[in-house]
Write a structure and sequence with these properties.
Helix content: 40-55%
Oligomer: single chain
Number of domains: 1
Largest sheet: 7 strands, parallel
Shape: globular
Number of helices: 12
CATH architecture: Alpha-Beta Barrel
């Protein structure tokens, strides 16, 4: 079994090419040295707000908490120049409450984690039923987790078949495929999982770093590996796949570094919330503080802005 697994990975690595780990680390280190000032910084801060998936994924979630989250998503600040966020992200049981608050005309989308998030350890029929329920209750987007056990065992067809089954169950809803990079062990495997997912996704679907429920989530390094996979896949096929780093992105400074990575790797066509998102709700308040600082020259205390839900 180990020999067959190793052979499967070797064939896949040969097909898609290896990752230059040293090159990745040198490249992302340079992103942290970039300086963005004045109008460009303000544009970046507001763009990042539009890319946030505002999230609550707790066992104590209630319809009232979700309604409050939706109101913040639509109006993050008293400043009318601050745009709305991209989406709210909730468990399937809370989709109906989000739809009730947002209505059918809101530009804020409803995303729902599904497929036995975060572990994925449930029968496929159960995972698909969860997707179907979320979509029927009004979810515009589904965030699924891949079968990491199958992937790490070299069972690549099983991984892709399950993604296809979820994609078909989604109907018109956008699909985001979570790789859970911390469990994939190496950059080569992150690149490989990215390609396996992209090969069976539709244009505009996403690949996503993490659930936010493990010790290691989005980093500039794993984000860069996935951005370069998207670039190489796009150059080979013409199919644009979107990207979502999730977990661990808490400051505006970090967000701007991630956006620099997007611009320098994929270009301006990916600098919008149709092709790039942040799964980091605690990021929003720091973005708002920095926007206020650019506008007035003074920082507001953190409590000036209402608390967002925990990031993931």
């Amino acid at each position: 079994m180990n020999g067959a697994k190793s052979a499967s990975f070797r064939r896949l690595f040969d097909q898609i090419g290896p990752v230059d780990t040293v090159g990745i680390e040198e490249r992302v280190a340079k992103y942290t040295t970039r300086s963005i000032k004045k109008a460009a910084k303000l544009w970046g801060l507001k763009a990042a707000v539009t890319m946030v998936d505002l999230t609550t994924l707790e066992g104590k979630d209630t319809p009232g908490k979700v309604a409050s989250l939706c109101r913040k998503a639509m109006h993050p600040s008293d400043d009318p120049a601050v745009p709305r966020v991209a989406a709210v992200c909730v468990y399937p049981a809370m989709v109906r409450a989000a739809r009730k608050e947002l209505g059918t005309e809101s530009k804020v989308r409803i995303a729902s984690v599904a497929t036995a998030f975060p572990s994925g350890q449930a029968p496929l029929s159960t995972r698909l039923a969860e997707v179907r329920a979320a979509v029927n209750d009004g979810a515009d987007e589904i965030d699924m987790v891949i079968n990491r056990g199958a992937f790490l065992s070299g069972e690549f067809s099983e991984v892709q078949d399950e993604i296809v089954a979820v994609r078909e169950t989604c109907g018109a809803a956008t699909l985001k495929v979570i790789l859970e990079v911390s469990e994939l062990e190496t950059y080569d495997k992150i690149r490989a999982a990215s390609f396996l997912a992209m090969e069976v996704l539709r244009p505009g679907d996403f690949i996503k770093t993490s659930t936010g429920k493990t010790n290691l989530n989005a980093t500039l390094g794993n984000n860069q590996v996935m951005l370069e996979a998207i670039r190489d896949f796009y150059l080979a096929t013409g199919i644009p796949i979107a990207m979502k780093p999730a977990g661990g992105i808490r400051t505006a400074k970090q967000a701007l570094q991630f956006l620099i990575a997007v611009k320098e790797t994929l270009g301006d066509a990916w600098l919008n919330n149709r092709r790039y998102r942040f799964g980091a709700s605690s990021l929003l308040n720091d973005l708002l503080r920095q926007i206020e600082k650019e506008r007035t020259g003074a920082y507001q205390a953190p409590y000036y802005f209402s608390e967002a839900a925990e990031s993931y």
